[in-house]
Amino acid sequence: MTSFLRKRIISSAIPLVFVVLGVFCLARLTGSPVDLYLPLSATPQQRAEFSAAHGFDDSIPVQLWDYLTNAAQLDFGTSLRTGESAGSMVLKAFPVTLQLAGMTMLLAILGALLVGSLAAYRPNSLIDRIAGLLSMTAASIPDFWFAIVGVLVFGVGLDWLPTSGTLGGPEIWVLPIATLLIRPFGVLVQVVRGSMVGALSAPYVKVARSKGADPKRVVFGHALRNSITPVLTVAGDLTVGLVNGAVVVETIFGWPGIGKLMIDSILQRDFAVLQAAVLLTAVTIFALNILVDVCHALIDPRVRQAVPA
Amino acid sequence: MKSSVPSGPRRERGRAHTVLALLTTGTLLLTSACAVANSDAAGDAGSADGRTLRLVLTQEPPTLEPCESSLTATGVVVRSNITEPLVERDPTSGKLDPLLATGWRQTKPTTWTFDIRPGVKFQNGQPFTAKDAAFSIDRAVNSDLACNVDGYVFGDEKLEVHTVSPTRLTVTTEKTDPILPLRLSFVEIVPRTTSTKAKVRIPIGTGPYAVKSWQTGVSISLARNEDYWGKAPAYPRARYVWRSDASVRAAMIDKGEADIATALDHTSADKGNTVAYPNNETTALRLDGREAPLDDIRVRKAIGMAVDRKGIIDALLGGLAKPAAQLVPPGVVGHNDDLAPVPYKVAAARALVKQAAADGVPVHRQITLVARNGMFAGISEVAEALQYEMARVGLNVRIRMADTATHLQYQLRPLPRDVGPVALLIMHGNQAGDAAFTTSQYLVSDGPQSTFGTKELDRRIAAADALSGKARAKAFAEVLGYQNETVAQYAYLAHMRGLLGLSPKVRYRPDSATGDEMRLAEVSPAKAGRH
Q1: How far is A107 from chain B (nearest CA, A)?
Q2: Is residue B74 part of a domain?
Q3: Which of A35, A41, A267 to mutate to test the interface with B (most CBs of B within 10 A)?
Q4: What is the ipTM of this complex?
């Protein structure tokens, strides 16, 4: 297991390094933030002072070196917009996204296991067809459209839910989570169903059925357990993709999370905050990938043996 | 009968249970975290108890620094609510009214004297005197803070400020400035204890409201200044939240979650809960006259004739605008009432382009039409309509949609090099009420937002700027007409109108300054559901 873990960490760390370096360099290719932060009448001296104060007058390799050495000491710089520490801004925003993403994936996995299993239990039955149609629709609906329609229907039309915001009772979670949930749920139902259909046609299930084993135990006990590995893998990938969904949800519903912070930082050329946000997100995704792999390996020992030396 | 299917070793089942336990623990932790976050049942915008005025903006202000109040997102919260200037401009009549100064007069050609209102206190209890006014002007205009008000309102001008007594102040300019009091209406007054080394995050002023809290990313709360020198505002509290999507802002008004919503979109707002108002913004294509084929005035004039302003306004802007013939809207000093929008004449425009082509102008060279995302509702569709209309008269146009920072690179000097001919879709707001603020930026040859010009136009602008009163208005009106005839740097589109969401519970009459300066003291509870 230790060897497996070491190999996975090394292979997962490579993209992390590329993402962090890539964002650093690409951000600087979009131009200097001086025009956004200084008035029209700013003198060349003021512009030069602004650039020097924030290190924009150094070459990109020098800026990168400064960034990496400071980041190693957990100093991620200061926000151009707010003057606050970029690290603290990111740490404040991150739990918001983490809550949303965690709740969403949990509900998506549990819901997909239930619906996917029911659909797989009797392939081509009415339940299977309805589940297939709904999951395909869910996986295809644009999240921003779903969010706006949700606000208009459930917020304004039916008056069941608040339109947006982060303060209030549990009802404030419904629309944001439903918006984030819809696509992973749709995809996972398909994965669970496909995996379960395969498992239910496996010889050991046929033998169990022929010997009169309890059908529910066969489906939910044996087949589901053996189908969980691909579900976890796909769920891990979908969780990574939730950062994209979080941008939409946080922007529309006014949640001050990491997705909105990233978009605002890009638009405002607030490089320090953008870098800190990307770094924390990349590290989280890295850790998540490792966690998924470990879970994967715990459930299916063949995975541990399959990792090449 | 016992099943022969192996249920797996006990250790394997344990691992599965571990995963399940991890998931369950995660849920519990997240749920408990949610419970902590949800301690306020009133919602982001505050409770509808009638004592809190709830406003929803398009974006969170980047700062509340008073010297950055010329930024729309900052000014709409700060100006005349938290801080106040010496003089304020009536957005409807254009007249200057006393505020923290009770009177002013030009005592020398380059010197103005202001009488300071006695008995005014800042929100921190400190008395307001002429020294604070002098300090505030110095801090905003003469300091190294690089304040936006310095650039937009005063340009390169430096001011000499002296306090004659605790209630008298003189301001001296380098050359005669007939509109200095108007310029000073953009300087928000702060106590002289305010930092001169750094911009402040939470300002202190003399206004009817003080900042109570700023919950970054969520809301800004104001509380009524009980020591306010003027008439007390109707609402003891005000709370700003922000939602970038116009349909969500409209939904918040429709559902009663907010009382006022800014910058609504005609496609998603309920007409019963909105009020349209002229917002002093004008849209136009700025044509880069340094690059072929836009360096030929026939091509530039043809673009003006190719634009179906009425069609675009009716179909894409919800009828909420008026065809424009100049960069300044009615009501601004210098607006030329005699200028009419260029008639929509496709055949004549095509003929002009053909003439230019016959003289060797490379009319098929690709023109880049640059527009900014989110500049106004329907901007993409307007850009596509303009592209179609320009193509119809024989020009080759591609669209580039840009974010604010990229758009600024095209908009401001130094202009980008080697990008070919550019038609930049701009939206210019003249909130100061005088054409000088437009001409100094958009029309003089080396203006920060102009691509070219002529010496004669520069001379006429400088001459108009030295005048005052009716002569000033007439001279600027002539400048705008002369620009259209001889320079034609702009193909005008429309004088825009804003759409404000207004709950039936409140009464407020928006004016041309509302988008940049929403005076909360002018809002009051409605009687019998009337605005």
Answers
A1: 9
A2: no
A3: A41
A4: 0.83
